[in-house]
Structures are given as structure tokens and as C-alpha cells.
Design a protein that fits this description.
The chain is of the alpha+beta class. It folds into two domains: 187 residues, no CATH class; 99 residues, Alpha-Beta Plaits. A four-stranded antiparallel β-sheet has the order 2-3-1-4. α1 crosses α9 and α9 packs antiparallel against α10.
């Protein structure tokens, strides 16, 4: 056990020494990885800050059934009761808006009051407004329920916002693809930078590695310092990225507070919690170590 600890401590010391032996090259590589990692951290801060705002905005669509003018309010109530009983799993709320109430609401709007005053009678129908529950297949459910309810007896016209829901679904799908591509790009940058760093170190230590093999050093002993070099690069770059993101959020929050104030709202960006940051550091270190292992395996075959 002591021998194993001694070997790993020696490999870690060698990795530190190799980082410090080429300060400018190491600093450039660390900056590249750190700046790349800063982007998803700031993106995550935006997502975390946006979650409370998104929860306040209802994205559930409403379907409005306009009853034929030949039917009275009792017909609208019976349709509402039928929908509430038969589609309890899909419907969050059902309410009836009488034609007189709808007319009074329009008359209360100055833009419509003069035009409505010249009408001899109320041309508006009774309406049944149905609010749907949030589901993953919301656009499909809106289309299916609309086709079903427009054939109900007494229903004249159906109005719904399925197009808006479809646009929302398309935007969310686009954002998911964008975030996935950003994550893939970050992984590729980390792997490529660490791979090239370890490659240059392995080539510069070519003679030292050859001598170590001649005196009986195992492949694990030869590769271990390079693995620590990759892991250290990932850890240091991750910590630097967190610091960069923290500094970048200061001016961003100042301008965001001014913007949110114009809407009488409070909004601030903050870093992910400590557990997520530690998990990110560990993930980057593992990826960097794997890239280092791949690089040293390919470039020490001599």
C-alpha cells in the first residue's frame, strides 16, 4: 500500500513539475480550456435564473368553443359539464362565458365601446373556455381534442392556440439541440487540448521514457504522470472557468437588474450550486485524464 501511494505521489509531483516547466504553454492551454468551460457555466446560470420566470408564465393552451347562436346558456353549461367529466385527465379547468358577460367586457374597452354602441343586439355567442393540463405531447393533444370537440352538438366554431404551442415546442427543441452541440464542442476542446499537451510532453520526454523502460519501468509507471498531468489540467482549468464565470456575472447582473426593473421584476444570475460545480470539475478531470491516456498510449510507442 505504501509503495502504491509513493508511486502516485511521485507521479503527481512529476505532473506538477511538467506543468511548471513550460509556464507559457501550460498557461495558454489552461486559458483555452477555462474560457471554453466558462460558456456552459454562464449558460447554466441563465437557465437557473429563468426557471422561476418560466414557472410564472403559463404555457398551457386554451381551447375556446363558441356555441351556436340558436342555443342558450344551458347548452353551453351542459357541454362544459360533459367535457369536464369525460376528459378529466386532459382538462385543468373549464369555464363558461355567457354572451352578455363577453359583451360587457368588450364595452369596457374604450377601443370597442363606440363601435358596439351602434349594434341593435348582442352578436356574440356563449363560449366554453377549456384550459388543458401540461403534457409532453401537448401539440398532438391540442389537435386531437380540437377535432373531437368541434363535432359536438351545439358547437359552432373552435378557436385554439395549437400553432403557438407548436412554435414553442420547436423553440424548445432548437434550444436543446443548441445546448447539446455546445456541450459536445466543450468536450472536444478539452479532449483535443489535453491530447496535444500530453503529446508534446511525451515527445519532449522521449529519451527519459526510453531510459526508464530500459531499467525496468512498467507501462503504468511511465503513463501515470501523464494521466495526472491531464487531470490536473482539467481541474485547474475548471476552477479558473468558475472564477471567470463569477467575474463575468457581476456586470451582467448590473445590467440585468436595470432591465428587470423596467418590468417591475427582480432577476439575478448565479452560479450553479456547489454540488453541481464539483461534479463538473470531476467530470472534466476524468475526460482530461482519459484524453491523456489515449495520447500517451499513441505517442510513446517507440
Amino acid at each position: 500500500m505504501r509503495r502504491w501511494i509513493r508511486h502516485h505521489r511521485y507521479a503527481l509531483a512529476i505532473a506538477f513539475r511538467r506543468l511548471l516547466s513550460n509556464p507559457f504553454s501550460s498557461l495558454a492551454n489552461l486559458l483555452v480550456i477555462a474560457l471554453t468551460l466558462t460558456l456552459p457555466i454562464i449558460g447554466t446560470a441563465f437557465l437557473v435564473a429563468a426557471q422561476p420566470v418560466v414557472k410564472q408564465v403559463s404555457i398551457t393552451p386554451e381551447i375556446t368553443l363558441f356555441i351556436d347562436l340558436s342555443h342558450d346558456q344551458e347548452k353551453a353549461q351542459s357541454i362544459a359539464t360533459r367535457i369536464r367529466n369525460e376528459h378529466e385527465a386532459d382538462v385543468a379547468n373549464v369555464r363558461v362565458i355567457p354572451r352578455d358577460q363577453a359583451m360587457n367586457n368588450l364595452k369596457g374597452n374604450p377601443a370597442w365601446s363606440d363601435a358596439l354602441a351602434v349594434l341593435p343586439d348582442n352578436p356574440l355567442p356563449h363560449a366554453v373556455v377549456i384550459t388543458l393540463k401540461e403534457t409532453e405531447d401537448l401539440p398532438e393533444r391540442v389537435a386531437a381534442l380540437t377535432n373531437l370537440w368541434k363535432n359536438l352538438d351545439g358547437v359552432g366554431t373552435v378557436q385554439h392556440d395549437a400553432a403557438w404551442v407548436q412554435r414553442l415546442a420547436a423553440i424548445l427543441a432548437f434550444l436543446r439541440v443548441g445546448l447539446g452541440l455546445m456541450a459536445a464542442g466543450v468536450v472536444l476542446v478539452v479532449l483535443a487540448t489535453v491530447f496535444n499537451t500530453v503529446r508534446m510532453q511525451a515527445l519532449s520526454q522521449r529519451e527519459e521514457i526510453a531510459v526508464a523502460r530500459l531499467v525496468g519501468a512498467t507501462e503504468s509507471f511511465v503513463r501515470r504522470p501523464f494521466l495526472y498531468l491531464g487531470a490536473l489540467t482539467g481541474v485547474i482549468a475548471s476552477v479558473a472557468a468558475i472564477i471567470f464565470a463569477k467575474l463575468a456575472l457581476v456586470p451582467m447582473n448590473e445590467n440585468l437588474a436595470t432591465l428587470a426593473g423596467t418590468y417591475n421584476a427582480q432577476l439575478a444570475l448565479s452560479l450553479p450550486n456547489t454540488h453541481h460545480l464539483l461534479l463538473a470539475i470531476f467530470t472534466v478531470a476524468v475526460l482530461a485524464a482519459l484524453s491523456a491516456r489515449w495520447s500517451v498510449t499513441r505517442n510513446t510507442r517507440f
